[in-house]
Amino acid sequence: MEEKKTSTADILAKIRAQKAAAAAAPETPVSPPETPAPVAAPESAPIAAAAPAPAAAPGPKPTSTKDIMAAIRGGGAKPAAAPVASTPAAVTAASTAPAGTPAPSTAAAAGPKLSPQEMLQKMREAKAAGGPAAAPVAAVAKTTAPVAAPPMPAKPVAAGKAKPAAVRRGMASFATVACISAICFVLGYLFGNSLLIAVGALAWGALLSPFMAAWAALASVGGIGTLGIARFMFPNVLVEPPSKFKVGPLSDYPLNTVSNKWKDQFGIWVVHTDQYEGRNMIFALASVCTHLGCTPNWLDGEQKFKCPCHGSGFYMTGINFEGPAPRPLERMGLRIAEDGMLEVNKSVKFQEEMGQWTDTTSYVEVV
Ligand code: FES
Predict the structure, then answer these.
(1) What global pTM score does this model have?
(2) For residue 58, is pLDDT > 80?
(3) Does residue 339 belong to any structural domain of this protein?
(4) Span from the CA of 284 to the centroid of ligand 1 (angstroms)
(5) Using CA positions, which residue lies closest to atom 2 of ligand 1?
(6) CA of 313 to the centre of ligand 1 (A)
(7) Range from 26-30, 50-54, 229-233 that averages highest in pLDDT
(8) pLDDT above 80 (res 103)
(9) Best residue among 291, 304, 330 to mutate for probing ligand 1, ranked by most atoms within 8 Å of CB
């Protein structure tokens, strides 16, 4: 035979019945002898009849612990259907009481106030009586069953450890443009190139904002124009070596030798020879070929000047003897200065074919 499961409503109904029975006993001496019978009959009979029958549980079930506790406190004076506190329950009980029945006092309507220990005791008694408390206990056990812990939220990434990709790309672009700007500045400064400086300024302005880039471009154009005007104020000046210069004493030039010492600096050879007309003299020859103006070389082994352009050859004296050169090399003015040094004067030239080599200012005779 299957045992019927007792619900919380059944337990409450039993408790109310017990409370009603307890409340009815003290009221007997107060009420007239006739009234307790009719009063007790309508209240106790339906409740007692309803107690064993689960189907007799009136109204909705209590929905919270507060409701259950209120029902326990309300006792038998409160209808089982009342899910609210004792005061409305008392009002409802008064309204449903038969006429002629004395209205229950507030204390009677609310029932004796129970302490938590008393309530627990009553719960135990109800459980021991029919075992209906197993359901609530089971329910409590269910509610107290360990609940699966919710998953831990993802740990947020610490700021500064990882940066968004967009931020990294922005920083890379900034560094690249900054490097280009710096390189342009440095190269422009080193090589004096104003265009590179302008590009560097433009790139640096672009780093800040388009507005700054526009101002940088405008300033660059203005700066280039200003530099151009300043350069125009300083015309080109060709700095040439002086036409007169000293080449040292006579002793620096042995007989029958050609000195290349001043060729690169002043474009002359200093020749000491006695091969021209048998006279021991020193003179200065221009290192310019009389053919088309190339620079010949002195070949000491061959004792001649040789032009690399078309092969013209000249003796140590400067007289042409081979190649297309039409005439001898030219002499420069030469004299002994007041300090005893040989002084060359390139502002005057002496040509052999013109008979100018006989001029005493074209050579220095060594005695
Ligand atoms: Fe010297 Fe022609 S330029 S031989």
Answers:
(1) 0.41
(2) no
(3) yes
(4) 20
(5) 310
(6) 9
(7) 229-233
(8) no
(9) 291
Boundary (domain end) residue, out of 218, 233, 267: 218
d(CA 326, CA 289): 10
Q: Which residues pair with 38 in a beta bridge?
A: none
Distance 293 CA to ligand 1 centre (A): 6
Domain span at residue 286 reads 244-365
Strands lying side by side in the sheet with 313-314: 297-299, 304-306, 313-314, 320-322
Same domain, 49 and 137: yes
Q: Which of 62-71, 196-205, 262-271 has the highest mean pLDDT?
A: 262-271
Based on the domain organization, do 214 and 252 belong to the same domain? Answer: no
Strand 281-286 vs strand 331-336: parallel, antiparallel, or unpaired? antiparallel
Q: Which tops the pLDDT comparison, 52 or 118?
A: 118
> Mutate which of 306, 307, 314 to test ligand 1's pocket (most atoms within 8 Å of Cβ)?
307
C-alpha torsion sign, points 299, 301, 302, 304: positive
| Residue 48 and residue 17 in contact, taking contact as beta carbons nearer than 8 Å | yes
Distance separating alpha carbons of residues 344 and 172, to the nearest angstrom: 66
Nearest 10 degrees: CA dihedral of 4, 8, 10, 15? 140
